[in-house]
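Anyone up for a design puzzle?
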């Protein structure tokens, strides 16, 4: 009988272990949220909610925190579901303050989604009372200020911001003060009081100096004020500082707007080269954002597919075990199982067919976006070429040659993006076609110098990342021959370009019949490009200049 006394201890031990584990999960979630690793924070919050024993106040608070994280991760459907669940559970456990807190967070969600009527109804139906915590009352007032700001009722927005700021200052709510200062800065920016707005953004940045995402957003808002004031030099200075602070992150939704304003500022200053540079970088960030969203959908579909596969395997194993039971019972069971299996297989087939169609559509959309990005980059580079050609008419001969050299390099990169846009494959190109196009771009210069270019190029597929260096290399060799290889007295001026292919090996040969190069001359750019390609190369004087490099076809 004495052994029965240990049961309460065992039960208490398991309850303690379970509680300790749940607290550890929450601590992990808080940690990752603090260091702004929101994806991992979301996973730990979800793990806590799935394993929570009771739907108590802690459960509701965790749902609200999880909802805030999911909104940062742009999962708006999950955010809305978590918030409405939190309200229902708060009503079930009759916790008036949690009902109030969850409703304020839901109102904020509606404001962010531009559903101002729904937010208005929540604010009309919910009022703070004296027993509520200062944090929740403060949150109510600064969210109401945000609501009036979105409606352009700026005086009301300032009034409620000051109400919130008084509470935050009284109870030392630093994070709340950061949010309020940011809101006040935005309100004064709308009112045209830019100096006041900058002061509030500086206060926001000071509070959020250890929270990089919030700091970056506030600093970006400050930089845009200089742009609005047409102080483009200061705007560029602050935008670059902002971009440098988040360069090690993958926040394409934050980096994109910064690059957009950098592009606009440079264009406003008449610096087209930097303008187009940051415009291209902005387009890359937009494409990265689209890729991230596509990958999220693909991963979700993959998880669903693997779950269905595992469920099918479990059913098949169960059928094998059950087959060893009574023979007469198995006859009926097998019949029922086969019927269920047929129906399941049909449903599975149609479900997989639907998902495959969705995956195909996403892949097609991704290829389309990649093609459009290459097309846009090609157009931007062509515009730069046009601008440089326009400048050609204004400058001296020496500078003109330099400018033509730069133009030809840009045209070789533009040609690569043109071919990528036309290709179905986005990671390889037909090298012979690419090199032919580069030679065509230089045809007018060669004809003007009375130089014959003989081309003999075999067809090979080549890696896109290496192709750009091959294009720049051939462009540099031809430009060097035009500038240095031939004297005015030479009548027969010839350049040979040969691409030999032997199975898995290929060799690119370039030769002119000019004066050659001296042993002391080191074509720096040619050596640099060969180093990027990581291939064996050879330079010699054989009746002129001779260059050879090995290639590895795909």
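Challenge accepted. My sequence:
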């Amino acid at each position: 009988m004495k052994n029965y006394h240990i049961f309460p201890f065992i039960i208490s031990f398991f309850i303690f272990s379970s509680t300790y584990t749940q607290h550890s999960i929450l601590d992990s979630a808080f940690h990752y949220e603090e260091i702004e690793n929101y994806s991992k924070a979301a996973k730990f919050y979800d793990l806590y909610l799935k394993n929570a024993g009771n739907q108590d106040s802690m459960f509701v608070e965790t749902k609200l925190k999880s909802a805030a994280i999911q909104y940062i991760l742009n999962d708006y459907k999950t955010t809305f579901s978590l918030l409405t669940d939190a309200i229902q559970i708060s009503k079930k456990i009759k916790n008036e303050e949690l009902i109030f807190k969850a409703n304020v967070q839901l109102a904020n969600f509606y404001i962010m989604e531009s559903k101002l009527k729904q937010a208005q109804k929540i604010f009309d139906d919910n009022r703070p009372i004296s027993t509520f915590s200062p944090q929740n009352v403060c949150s109510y007032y600064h969210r109401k200020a945000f609501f009036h700001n979105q409606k352009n009722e700026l005086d009301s927005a300032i009034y409620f911001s000051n109400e919130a700021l008084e509470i935050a200052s009284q109870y030392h709510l630093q994070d709340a003060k950061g949010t309020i200062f940011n809101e006040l800065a935005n309100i004064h920016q709308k009112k045209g009081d830019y100096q006041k707005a900058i002061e509030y953004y500086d206060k926001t940045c000071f509070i959020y100096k250890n929270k990089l995402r919030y700091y970056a957003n506030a600093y970006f808002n400050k930089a845009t004020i200089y742009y609005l004031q047409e102080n483009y030099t200061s705007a560029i200075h602050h935008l670059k500082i902002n971009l440098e602070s988040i360069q090690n992150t993958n926040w394409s939704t934050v980096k994109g707007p910064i690059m957009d304003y950098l592009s606009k500022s440079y264009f406003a200053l008449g610096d087209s080269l930097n303008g187009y540079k940051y415009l291209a970088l902005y387009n890359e960030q937009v494409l990265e954002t689209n890729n991230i969203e596509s990958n999220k959908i693909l991963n979700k579909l993959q998880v669903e597919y693997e779950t269905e596969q595992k469920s099918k395997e479990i059913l098949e194993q169960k059928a094998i075990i059950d087959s060893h039971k009574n023979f007469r019972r198995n006859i009926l069971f097998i019949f029922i199982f086969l019927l269920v299996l047929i129906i399941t297989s049909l449903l599975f087939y149609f479900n997989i067919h639907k998902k495959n169609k969705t995956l195909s559509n996403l892949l097609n959309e991704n290829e389309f976006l990649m093609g459009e990005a290459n097309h846009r980059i090609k157009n931007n580079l062509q515009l730069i070429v046009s601008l440089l050609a326009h400048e050609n008419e204004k400058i001296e001969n020496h500078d003109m040659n330099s400018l033509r050299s730069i133009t030809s390099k840009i045209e070789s990169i533009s040609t690569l993006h043109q071919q990528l846009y036309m290709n179905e494959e986005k990671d390889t190109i037909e090298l012979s076609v690419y090199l032919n196009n580069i030679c065509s771009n230089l045809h007018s210069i060669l004809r003007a110098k009375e130089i014959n270019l003989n081309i003999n190029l075999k067809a090979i597929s080549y890696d896109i990342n290496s192709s750009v260096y091959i294009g720049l290399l051939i462009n540099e060799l031809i430009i060097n021959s035009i500038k240095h290889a031939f004297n005015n007295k030479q009548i027969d001026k010839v350049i040979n370009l040969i691409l030999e292919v032997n199975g898995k090996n290929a060799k690119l040969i370039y030769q002119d019949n000019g004066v050659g190069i001296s042993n002391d001359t080191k074509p720096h750019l040619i050596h640099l490009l060969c180093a990027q390609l990581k291939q064996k190369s050879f330079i010699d004087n054989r009746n002129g200049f001779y260059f050879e490099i090995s290639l590895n076809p795909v």
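A detail worth pointing out: Residues 9-16 have pLDDT under 50 and may be disordered.
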